[in-house]
Amino acid sequence: MNNCLRFLLTIVVFVPLSASAEIMHYSSCTLKDGKTLADAQAWVEDWRPIAKRAGIDYKVRLLTGHAAPADAMPPNFAIEGSSSTLSTYAKAWEWWYSSKEAAKSNAQLQSIATCGANSVFTTIE
Questions:
Q1: CA pair distance 111, 32, nearest whole angstrom
Q2: Residue 59 in contact with residue 79, Cβ under 8 Å?
Q3: What is the rounded (10 degree) CA torsion for 47, 49, 55, 61?
Q4: Which of 19, 44, 81, 114 is deepest in the core (most CB within 10 A)?
């Protein structure tokens, strides 16, 4: 039993333990006149390969009201962005504001919707 305890303590000391927390970013958006959620989803589909080519650890999806008050339903929607760590989150946002390709994507988004009311969350698991 004593040898088993020593073995377990040795593993705990030499095996790196790490905690991870996913970073979630939410932006509230409103579609511009004449634009649809399909236009917003087309932006997401255009954005994904640009981010992948740049090696960005950041995922984007759209959230729409389902069982929500009328003011949360289209033309309102949210953009959910997620990254696996704070450092990859920071790298993604640095890329978003410094890359020429990302600037074109940002202009595409701005032609579709007005976004603001940003919130950033981290998981505690």
A1: 8
A2: no
A3: 50
A4: 81
pLDDT at 43: 97
Poorest-pLDDT segment among 16-25, 35-44, 79-88:
16-25
3-class DSSP assignment, residue 95: helix
Q: Which of 8-22, 59-73, 75-89 has the lowest mean pLDDT?
A: 8-22
Instruction: Please answer whether residues 110 and 30 qualify as being in contact, where contact means their C-beta atoms are separated by less than 8 angstroms.
Output: no
CB atoms within 10 A of CB 13: 7
Residues near 49 by beta carbon (within 8 Å), at least 6 away in sequence: none
Structure confidence at residue 123 (pLDDT): 82
One-letter amino acid for residue 52 of the chain: K
Question: What are the CA-CA distances from residue 51 to residues 41, 43, 54, 77, 105 (Å)?
Answer: 15, 12, 5, 22, 10
How far apart CA 109 and CA 7 sit, in angstroms, is: 56
Strand locations in 8-110 (E): 23-31, 59-63, 76-83
Whether the CB-CB separation of 118 and 29 falls below 8 Å is answered with: no
